[in-house]
Write a structure and sequence with these properties.
Length: 422
């Protein structure tokens, strides 16, 4: 096997493997919407045709003297390249029609089609000899114009947004990759190559752009997911019956204005902090979370009196965590644990730091439940807490319970202080 065939086979096989692998990735992608998937399938299909076109053109040049067929294959290759660039434009602005860009693609295809009867852009003689015409660089010029258009769309997408340097650099990276492929074909291109440099650069750009855009889609999905989780948290957290019961308990306070005033302030702070948690994704200090827990406990003591008791064993408090995570566990412990006992009970909140992790434990000596069974809807918010911990700080939540004895919920999260990045 000659060096030419060996290298050609390796490059061709690698490019085809990348294209097929990308096709499978897009099929299995659960984050990208259908519209963008269709765009990528079109890009992948044209890229596949372009690689095959390069190989067939090489074969027709050196192993099969079919000059008319070679003209057709060459026209196909010159027509596909700008079309791929325009399809990329739909990834930036899927709702635009990009009519001017498509007009350039059609003009490019029509001009190259003149090769069948004139030497305007190029032609191939009956002896299978290639000859460039006065517009021989038309495809490259139009491709460069479309790349500039594409770069403009990329930067236009930042209009009204905070400029993202990393994203801008990436867009420039894959545009530069294609430009380098064009320049390489000018300087070192040869009809002995199985695949042109610009084709290799197109495949690289397609694969890397998908990887980058997929990461963006995942980030957007997770951001939307967190918003949905905060909404769900609020729906489960601020339940009407709790509001009614708290207001009723406050209304029953007689003869002690100071106590009533404190209860009203605690209740308003409780509602405000729940609403704040819905509108921000920022982490809070444990000290702030602790204040919220105390306000909640004070409200429950108004309702249940000595049945509700709270104890604290805090080794550390200088760490960050998602808002309301511990408070919701305390609320579960009160509602589904100690208040289910006639004599009531105690909820104990403890913290400790071991290595690079913080352990936050909420334990109650209430009625417990069967830990082997799935936690039901009655223990609201448990799944929300787990997902919020996982997505925001990479934390976990473990639940252990013994029927008629106790329940222990343990949050494990990386130790981070204010100002540190998670």
């Amino acid at each position: 096997m000659s060096k030419e065939v060996r290298y050609g086979t390796i490059i061709f096989a690698t490019l085809m493997a990348l294209i097929v692998g990308l096709f499978v990735m897009v099929i299995l992608d659960s984050y990208t919407n259908r519209k963008r998937k269709r765009i990528y399938f079109a890009i992948i299909a044209l890229t596949f045709v372009l690689v095959m076109q390069n190989f067939v053109e090489y074969y027709l040049t050196w192993h099969m003297k079919a000059w008319m067929l070679r003209i057709f294959v060459s026209v196909l290759g010159y027509s596909i390249r700008p079309a791929i660039i325009v399809l990329f434009a739909y990834l930036f602005k899927p709702d635009m029609k990009h009519l001017v860009a498509w007009g350039l693609v059609v003009f490019n295809a029509l001009m190259h089609s003149t090769a069948f009867f004139a030497k305007i852009v190029f032609t191939i003689s009956p002896k299978n000899d290639y000859a460039g015409g006065p517009l021989w660089a038309l495809c490259y010029v139009i491709s460069l114009i479309l790349l500039i258009y594409l770069a403009g769309l990329g930067f236009w997408s930042y209009k009204g947004k905070k400029f993202n340097v990393k994203e801008a650099v990436f867009h420039l990276f894959w545009i530069v990759i294609i430009i380098l492929g064009i320049v390489s074909d000018f300087l070192w291109g040869s009809d002995r190559q199985w695949v042109a440099y610009v084709t290799v650069s197109v495949v690289i750009a397609v694969v890397f752009s998908y990887i980058w855009l997929h990461q963006q889609f995942v980030a957007d999905y997770e951001a939307n997911f967190m918003i949905e989780q905060r909404m769900n948290m609020m729906i489960t957290q601020i339940q009407p019956h709790f509001i009614y019961n708290s207001l009723s308990a406050i209304a029953e306070i007689e003869g002690v204005p100071e106590t009533a005033q404190k209860a009203i302030l605690n209740f308003s702070d409780y509602l405000r902090e729940n609403l704040d948690a819905m509108t921000t994704a920022e982490l809070v200090t444990f000290d702030k979370e602790l204040e919220h827990i105390k306000k909640y406990i004070d409200l429950e003591i108004l309702r249940f009196g000595k049945k509700v008791n709270i104890a604290y064993d805090l080794e550390c408090t200088d760490f960050l965590l998602p808002a309301l995570t511990v408070q919701m566990l305390v609320e579960n412990a009160v509602k589904h644990g100690i208040t289910k006992r006639y004599e009531g009970g105690t909820v104990t909140v403890s913290t400790k730091k071991r290595g690079g992790f913080v352990y936050v434990t909420v334990k109650d000596d209430g009625v417990g439940f069967d830990a082997k069974k799935e936690i039901g809807a009655g223990h609201f918010g448990i799944n929300n807490i787990r997902k919020r911990l996982e997505y925001t700080v990479g934390g976990t939540l473990e639940i252990e319970s013994v029927e008629r004895v106790s329940t222990t919920a343990t949050i494990i999260l990386p130790y981070k202080q204010r100002g540190e990045q998670l």
